[in-house]
Amino acid sequence: MKRRSVLASLFATPAIAQTQAWAPSRPVRLVVPFPPGGATDVVARLVAQRMGTALGQPVVVENRAGAGGTVGSDFVAKSTPDGHTLVVSNIASHGVGPSVYRALPYDAMRDFTHIALLAAIPNVLIVNAARPERSVADFIATARLDPGGVRVASPGNGSSSHVTQELFKRLANIELTHVPYRGSGPAFNDIVANQIEGMITTLQEAGRNERVRILAVMSRERVPGWPDVPTIVEQGFPDLVASTWFGLSGPAGLPAPVADRLHAEAIAALAASDVAQRRAEIGAQSPPLSRADYTAFVAAEIARWSEVVRVSGARVD
């Protein structure tokens, strides 16, 4: 056993050395393609400080919002692939965006080097706590009593919330009226004020607000922090599993040693106890993926949502 351990360490040493061969020569810019304070921004700041400490250069979060995350993402796609400019890739800009925008200025696969999955926060279907619905079946029953009269909010046309709503309508065979807002904040505020009937948002945003009732979490298994909330699968919709996910990506052509080092430090940051605790608090459920697995995950999300958009016609322009 001792000999095997020595041999294992000898074989492991070159891999470790290769992973740590690259180091940034100046601060690393981490572009968040949404305004400060949202889920994307929260996830970015969870890992930025720890990654910066490990890399020996600060990882500076820079918010470049606009057009559903595509403005900041396009900026990074056109940046020099040297590891000093990264983006928080996400379901809006890299999963749904390729289908809902007719003239996206980048290719979500070819123009990026996908590095690591940082978090996947389950979506939830919510209503105001004063409403009578206490399950997905109740919500569907309400919609069938008044076809088109039940309004469901989203942060905007073509958002992941919007396309998930379209998928729900199709699977449940109901009519809903989509009400796009300018961001998730105003939409959520109208749910809290009982001004609109429902919303699909993230578990992090719904949180533990006593004025909101979560009818279902759109995951396959119940979330540990919300054990009393049934899943969408339990309520008969296994194909409605959906999450708002965030990852780390750089421009296409990022050298393998650079991408490998960034991947290693991102995974190490996620494993830190304080980061893991915070991820649990916001309901993040995401196993560590290899670079290849995260790349495949993004490709699968593009394919999945393109079909939903094709059937529903949920485009931005």
UniProtKB/TrEMBL annotation:
It comes from the Bacteria. InterPro entries: BUG, Bug_dom1. The keyword Ribosomal protein does not apply. Residues 1-17 form the signal peptide. Keywords: Signal. It holds the Pfam family TctC. PANTHER family: BLR1237 PROTEIN, TRICARBOXYLATE-BINDING PROTEIN. Belongs to the UPF0065 (bug) family. This is Tripartite tricarboxylate transporter substrate binding protein. The lineage of its organism: Bacteria, Pseudomonadati, Pseudomonadota, Alphaproteobacteria, Acetobacterales.
